[in-house]
Write a structure and sequence with these properties.
Immunoglobulin-like, mainly beta, two-stranded antiparallel ribbon, 40% strand, elongated
Length: 149
């Protein structure tokens, strides 16, 4: 009988220890923490010119746990002394084009294109474009500058 009690006690201790060590996978609550998401950006391979509708930058997730909501994401471009806001609805100088199915979020497997929207952001390439992506007050990890040809 004593051996059985010792076994049950050790088994309970083992279960408690592994749970605290993270060895037992418990269901996790959904999170809005994008700290595990890393994006990459590159020249969109469109030849920039003095028009105001150039496709400037292609973006995708290099690593993403989940997509993130556009409602909490701010995207800005910096070119020279100017800063431009980017939105998915076309109300700012830079338009974000999506290829995913959910227009409310940047999905984990989605590719984005940043396009001039009536503003000549890069008229004489090569242009060094700074990228600033802020989600819920924290800057996302990823490419900070892209040379647009």
């Amino acid at each position: 009988m004593k051996a059985r009690q010792t076994f049950v006690a050790l088994l309970g201790l083992l279960m408690l220890t592994t749970a605290y060590a993270g060895c037992i996978l418990l269901p996790r609550e959904p999170t809005d923490d994008p700290s595990m998401n890393i994006y990459r950006a590159e020249d969109a391979a469109d030849t920039a010119n003095s028009n105001s509708d150039n496709v400037l930058i292609a973006m995708s997730w290099q690593h993403a746990q989940d997509g993130i909501s556009w409602a909490f994401l701010t995207v800005k471009l910096e070119s020279g002394d100017n800063v431009y806001d980017c939105t998915t609805d076309g109300t700012e100088e830079c338009l974000i084009l999506q290829d995913g199915s959910d227009n409310a979020s940047w999905e984990y497997d989605e590719r984005l294109m940043l396009v001039e929207n009536g503003e000549d952001i890069c008229s004489s390439p090569p242009c060094m474009i700074g990228l600033y992506l802020v989600y819920r007050g924290g800057q996302l990890t990823g490419t900070s500058d892209v040379v647009v040809e």
